[in-house]
Amino acid sequence: MATPLTDQEKRKQISIRGIVGVENVAELKKGFNRHLHFTLVKDRNIATPRDYYFALAHTVRDHLVGRWIRTQQFYYEADPKRVYYLSLEFYMGRTLQNTMINLGLQNACDEAIYQLGLDMEELEEMEEDAGLGNGGLGRLAACFLDSMATLGLAAYGYGIRYEYGIFNQKIRDGWQVEEADDWLRHGNPWEKARPEYMLPVHFYGRVEDSKWVDTQVVLAMPYDTPIPGYMNNTVNTMRLWSARAPNDFNLRDFNVGDYIEAVLDRNLAENISRVLYPNDNFFEGKELRLKQEYFVVAATLQDIIRRFKTTKKGTPVRTSFETFPDKVAIQLNDTHPAMAIPELMRILVDIEKLDWDTAWDLTKRTFAYTNHTVLPEALERWPVELLEKLLPRHLQIIYHINQVHLDRIAALFPKDMERLRKMSLIEEDGCKRVNMAHLCIVGSHAVNGVAEIHSNIIKTDVFRNFSEIEPEKFQNKTNGITPRRWLLLCNPGLAEVIAEVIGEDYVKDLSQLEKLRDFVDDAVLIRDVSRVKQDNKVKFAQYLEKEYRVKINPSSMFDVHPYFSICVHVDVKRAAPGYHMAKMIIRLITAVAEVVNNDPAVGSKLKVIFLENYRVSLAEKVIPATDLSEQISTAGTEASGTGNMKFMLNGALTIGTMDGATVEMAEEAGEENLFIFGMRVEDVAEMDKTGYDAMLYYKRIPELKHVMDQITSGYFSPKNPDLFKDLTDMLLKFDRFKVFADFEDYVKCQEKVSQLYQNPVEWTKMVIRNIAATGKFSSDRTITQYATEVWGVEFLNDIPALLHAAV
């Protein structure tokens, strides 16, 4: 039986999500029972909580499909310019609660489930996270899809339907262990397979007279997921591709009795969509990763061109590509989908028979590229040898693009061979490689960074030679987060407190949070914000005790580092399976936790907790309970970050460096309302010139020396004193992030944090100032800027309402 509602929960039924209608509840209960019986073929005697979740999910989806169909009909009839967001990652998390909120159904569903004698929270916990992303890149894509639908853009997300998502992280004896994330094992009620739109994707083969022949074919099966806008009639589509082997697989082998070999060949073809970003330490891994990247763009471009050519009944099919950039905008989310550029050129030149110059003009006007990093290891470079084997025609096209590009540079800068070398798409040093970031820049009409500081770095440093020639091409689009998931869903108590003060419109216009500045000293608001934070901390403490068997004091400060998974210091991080140093950092955290948490003198005052398997649904619990958010990257190394924005919106204060979007957070809230420490970008640049010597800091700072000596002596690893030698050697001898240089300032800043935390009223006032300053960091603002400044698309706010909400 469900727990009876508290008075506060009953009050929330009259909230920004609307008043429950008796007829809506009755309709939902009827739909729930119908799906339980006829879709799941169960009754209440044998149904499990997962069955109830699926029945509810299908019931909610019933309210989506009519809007979904009508939205696509409207796009077909109006024929607007469409946006195609290409990303190898979409970190969607759970869908049920987000859909209920965006459709305005949550209160009615809560009441219906309550009347059925079930526990809504238990049903929501049955849903698997759709972890089709490693972290920030995929979560940003998910936020963008929500905003595009909410703003009424004709937009589509395209990616891969990985059979196994981001691995499940377990901590055993202090070490990270990776387990497969079989997120589809129970099925996915939100997706719809579209076998009628299955498409061929080609690999290998050879080039004969500029024709790609003798290829191996893999089929791309699309699965569509509806993306509802918030409280409007728009439901867009995320289309994810799954690899399938052709039906006529290797009959020759089958006929001679080698059935097993034929089946194994089939499995190899389908491995393309098997797992998210395989470990690429080995050549086979790199080949599979490149296959993934080409697979998604090849299928997507065929689909885009099919849709472009299709027109309303009674009118001719489009055969001219002259208007292609007027109807199609393709955004490349990092370099992973970069092969879309030579692929579109191949289609236009080899298949549609356009001349090179016309095809290149159309291609450049179609694509835009978002850069997400300045770190060298994250900028993709593919071996020419691998491309020649896997995609021989595309390598020819890349060579031609590069030749035309270098001819232009040579004309602008005669005899400047060094500039030509730096700007070439082909890196000649050692193993010849294709620089995918350079390909994206040359093949796009717009290039953007994701925070002001990051965009300035790529213009003045990383891609300086390119920006000098085409400065108008380079833009900034500071990242954002959707307030629907990252406030309304994960922190309904705070959302309600804000609505009581400034009204409900901020959910679709986050800039209205500025109105809270007038209430910073309001005693009622201070009390309510503080109460909500404490409620969230109590709830999270209960979760920790249940799931991690760790008891903490909810009155402690909750201090969270979002990249490494009280004062209660909570670390949340995953290490890529092939990233040795990251795994060692996690092992050090767990080793420190073992010592600190079991120390009788310290354990009652300080807890160190590593939250394994950090994911979207866990972040939705952690973030609302956090008091202090740690954003401590070395200045100039973090592109933007969005975790910092989520913590800020949910009432956490920030301790951090002036890096990524934290710089703009300080500008919006006032630097005095954040705890800023450490070097600035110019300080780091100066240190690069003069040199950084970690040993100088080690010898000069007693606390730092003591910490390092404890680690190196085996204090945290008595059975293996040299366990962390790789880490300490890196910090003392090879640390390009210059961690020690910021240590003293960080310690002093933490003292300021502790001092302010002793004054709850002043702390909460600073919290309110921060919340009031988060308006800029809505993904609605980011997408509006993309729409007007990059894509040139219109906002379609007039999709007619349905006569009936459910179909």
From TrEMBL:
GO MF term (any one): glycogen phosphorylase activity
Family matches, as InterPro entries: Glycg_phsphrylas (IPR011833), Glyco_trans_35 (IPR000811), Pyridoxal_P_attach_site (IPR035090)
Reaction(s) catalysed (UniProt annotation): [(1->4)-alpha-D-glucosyl](n) + phosphate = [(1->4)-alpha-D-glucosyl](n-1) + alpha-D-glucose 1-phosphate
Record key words, sorted: Allosteric enzyme, Carbohydrate metabolism, Glycogen metabolism, Glycosyltransferase, Phosphoprotein, Pyridoxal phosphate, Transferase
One cellular-component annotation, GO: cytoplasm
Pfam assignment, any one: Phosphorylase
EC number(s) given by UniProt: 2.4.1.1
Keyword Glycosyltransferase: yes
Required cofactor names: pyridoxal 5'-phosphate
Residue numbers bearing the N6-(pyridoxal phosphate)lysine modification: K646
Top-level EC class as recorded in UniProt: transferase
GO BP terms: glycogen catabolic process
Family label: Belongs to the glycogen phosphorylase family.
Purpose: Allosteric enzyme that catalyzes the rate-limiting step in glycogen catabolism, the phosphorolytic cleavage of glycogen to produce glucose-1-phosphate, and plays a central role in maintaining cellular and organismal glucose homeostasis.
Complex and partners: Homodimer; enzymatically active. Interacts with PPP1R3B; recruits the phosphatase PP1 which dephosphorylates and inactivates PYGL/glycogen phosphorylase.
Protein name, UniProt field: Alpha-1,4 glucan phosphorylase
Primary gene name: pygl
